[in-house]
Amino acid sequence: MDLSRNVSHDRRVLNDLLRPDLSVVFCGTAVATASARRGHYYSGPGNKFWQLLHEAGFTPTRLSPEEDVSLLDHGVGITDLVKNVAQSHDRGLDFSGTPRVAAHLETAAPRWVAFNGLTAGRAAAAQLGLARRKDVHLGEQPWHVGQSRVFVLPSSSGAHATMPYGEKLAWWRELRSASDASPA
């Protein structure tokens, strides 16, 4: 069952990369302007998503944004909480569509949902009534999205460069280890 959505039919900026039986689905806040322009996830020159993904061990080689669909072959998916806006910052985003995104995630039922950044994790927890924003931290969360375990990562965005790259990578590797240890 393919859970991708056609941009032209529901005005999404980018198609979800979802299907059943994924190990991890990375969920960001909204598609960045550069990604919308190129038509591929995490296309901004300062975004470290593809580097972190590879160096953490999710892919055998470093993929380019144009290869985003091939992530499904590696058991990895991508979506965003805000589906109809492209902007390169998180200010003023309308997260009211989060329950609909959560329903798609529940249908796909990955072992893990990994929020790419505290903003995404906190918005999801608050919108879904699972935790207070202030109680969401980096790492594994005590709440789930459907049956999926939840992990909040430091953002891969170049706009969130306050944390050194090596520290970000350590969190991404922790998720990789946890996802390897999870039953299929």
How much of the sequence lies in strands comes to 15-25%
Q: What is Rg?
A: 15 Å
Distance between the termini: 18 Å
Q: Please give the CATH architecture.
A: 3-Layer(aba) Sandwich
Number of strands: 5
- How many structurally independent domains? 1
Q: Give helix and strand order, one letter per element, not per position.
A: HEHHEHEHEEH
Helical proportion? 25-40%
**Global structural class:** alpha/beta
Strand ordering within the main sheet: 2-1-3-5-4
**Rough outline:** globular
Number of helices: 6
Mean pLDDT: 86
By CATH reckoning, the class would read Alpha Beta
Could you name the CATH homologous superfamily?
Uracil-DNA glycosylase-like domain
pLDDT below 50 for ≥5 consecutive residues: which ranges? Answer: 1-11
Biggest sheet, open or closed, and with what strands and sense? Answer: 5 strands, mixed
Protein name: Mismatch-specific DNA-glycosylase
InterPro entries: MUG/TDG, Uracil-DNA_glycosylase-like, Uracil-DNA_glycosylase-like_sf
Keywords: DNA damage, DNA repair, Hydrolase
Pfam family, one: UDG
Could you please describe the fold and organization of this structure?
It comes from Nocardioides jishulii. Pfam families: UDG. One of its GO terms (biological process) is base-excision repair, AP site formation. This is Mismatch-specific DNA-glycosylase. Strands 2-1-3-5-4 form a 5-stranded mixed beta sheet, with helices on both faces. It is globular. It has a single domain, classed as Uracil-DNA glycosylase-like domain (Uracil-DNA Glycosylase, subunit E). 30% of the residues lie in helices and 20% in strands. The chain has 184 residues and is an alpha/beta fold. Strand 4 and strand 5 form a beta hairpin. The N terminus is likely disordered.
